[in-house]
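Researcher: Can you fold this with flavin-adenine dinucleotide in place?
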Amino acid sequence: MAERNMSPNKTPIPEQDPQVRNKNFDEVALGYTEEMAVSEAARCLQCKNRPCVAGCPVNVQIPEFINLIANRDFAGAYKKIKETNSLPAVCGRVCPQETQCEAKCIRGIKGDSVGIGRLERFAADWAMKNLDEKAEMPKRNGHKVAVLGAGPAGLTCAGDLAMLGYDVTIFEAFHKGGGVLVYGIPEFRLPKAIVQAEIDKLGEIGVKLETNILAGKVISIPELFEEEGFDAIFIGTGAGLPMFMHIPGENYNGVFSANEYLTRTNLMKAYSEEAATPMIRFKKVAVVGGGNVAMDSARCAQRLGADTVYIVYRRSMEEMPARQEEVHHAIEEGIVFNILTNPTQIIGDDKGYVKGIECIKMELGEPDASGRRRPIPIEGSEFVLDVDAVIMALGTNPNPIISDNTPDLEVNKKGCILADEETGATSIPGVFAGGDIVTGAATVILAMGAGKVAATAIDKYIQEKK
Amino acid sequence: MYKILKKRDLNESNVLMEIEAPRVVKKALPGQFVILRVDENGERIPLTIAGVDHETGGVRVIFQKVGYSTTLLGEKNEGDYICDFAGPLGKPTDFEDFKKVIVVGGGLGCAIAYPIAKALFDKGVEVDLVVGFKTKDLIILEDEMKEAATRLHIMTDDGSYGKKGFTTDGLDAVLAEDPNYDAVFVFGPPIMMKFIAQVTKKYGVKTIVSMNPIMIDGTGMCGGCRITVGGETKFACVDGPDFDGHLVDWDEFMRRSAMYKEQEAEAMAKHKCRMEGMS
Ligand SMILES: Cc1cc2nc3c(=O)[nH]c(=O)nc-3n(C[C@H](O)[C@H](O)[C@H](O)COP(=O)(O)OP(=O)(O)OC[C@H]3O[C@@H](n4cnc5c(N)ncnc54)[C@H](O)[C@@H]3O)c2cc1C
Ligand code: FES
């Protein structure tokens, strides 16, 4: 064991210079070297009661894997993480560690918490580069499971079931698997090659991915059971329905939902010369919202050549739901934050293209149902930002295609599928659900956790039915 | 990968293709559409389903080589493959229990007008099919259309075939003689649909238009296809593609459809350069 590192600060992670990276789509954070990882791992106190593990939705054995890194057993560390987390290279990059594992870290009381996310990413990247293990095809048990949607929930559920011997087919509406990981989260935060490598690994253990299938419309739930012979179904179709503000001017040319803007940019690769999908290179862009989606949209807009990009957010910096690191990166890259500001209308020119966004200043009042202080407009404080594009990153709702076409499937008022928390079981026997389609827009790790829980429950359901 | 089973040039710029997609064939209903991608770098292009062949598992689409992606698709041949083909998407056309209808098709819109007319005609509905083309050489599917309507009215802008005039003139003539139609279905360029809706409004006949805005996913997740109908925002890919022609905000629709004109022209120019460089 290396000597304990008592530095109060996290080992910094090398990053591309902000003024360089805000013009390219290459990854921002470059990752730890072996030396940095070992040194950061030595900051872990190996607490007996492991508070960090309780903060992890999928129970990664955190002190154990960190100890292995400290002892330079990187392969061992990777395997330890993989025991409970099937997508470590993804989670190490996009999990909100500061509210999960790292929030519970004892080192965080006096100084920085241990860089658990950075170490997780290190172990996963190291394995990708150095381990060349072909996964072994598990022995088949003769049962078929259909997974609808190839986002983190579906991929995790499919992987776990395949390992248990099930013949799993994923049906995905888009032409590519990955869900938000490929259409939403940009390349500079999560390289698509990493997601693809994870999907390829599922192929090695026999998971089939059928793309271009909009379940509910092209194949119905009853058909999957009766005609295609599946024994159980997992629904992980996410929360893909964009919201708009319903203010005047929202249909001017140059107003986008974040989903459209990010899909054009990331999935359809509008940033590259080769891609056929067009994107206008806007010069001044306003992004409305304060979550990860807003940060991603703003940073994409800047990389696509905008001179000025504003975040317009109605609450204050403290209430912003985005990961801390994303806000920090956005500020470094020169994104301008207009907080306590809310749009009132979008202004167009005589040809119907956006030329400005009128906003009103807000102040914080009493806490609302979410516990955050409610923003209240300050009368007469309207002002106009000159912009040629507006991106609405206000959140998303579940897509109703499956529930509309499956009358027996119970949903709540918001359209989220009702599923048992412990099992993912829905109102239809043999149909399970998890991820954003159940919770509404949440996080990658929660979606993965739900996929895992459902895989266990599906196994139990099929074994008991036999 | 999806195989091109059949390709037929309908005229210089319009192409008919049948693409193998048995899952789509099984579910497709008149009025629905597919989204396809030609290759790995391709954009997702929506095309209305113009018919299916249950024996071969082929889905028929008809397109005009106008932009970069449709030109690329037009360069593919029988036996070639395209990389993605998703559908059927959108809601099927609602035929209610119409007894007597007019179906209007403008130019390439006839590719869609024809299967709708045929579906109605085969159900025993009385169908007037009013179709318009710029000139005689651009007429497509004439024989097929004859078999799909009680009366076929062909219009050409220059009078080189059928009656001289636009589809609006043809439609006006039919309605002037007898305004007692249950509905008018309209397929064609936005500007034509806009003016057809003005004609039918005059006669108070229900008008169903098939909208084809810019789309990406076709599943309701981007909102790029939004249009205003009766003052409300609708997503054409999931709420449509059929809407009440009297309620559509046509000017907004045409404006949004033209959003990427510059980018498309650029892409086209680059493609031409590349092709010429190769030959
Ligand atoms: C821009 C953006 C940035 C984000 N950043 C972060 C972050 O940094 N950290 C974090 O933890 N979370 C982040 N999130 C949230 C996170 O990505 C989601 O919570 C997570 O992806 C949900 O996973 P899922 O599997 O439930 O659904 P999704 O990832 O949405 O996947 C659903 C899949 O189902 C497909 N589908 C939908 N309908 C059908 C159908 N009818 N038939 C077949 N397939 C269908 C979709 O095409 C999609 O591929 C972000 C989200 C966005 C949009
Ligand atoms: S095409 Fe994306 S919502 Fe209709």
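Model: Folded with flavin-adenine dinucleotide in place. Residues B 215-218, 220-225, 235, 237 surround FE2/S2 (inorganic) cluster (ligand 2) (CB under 6 Å).
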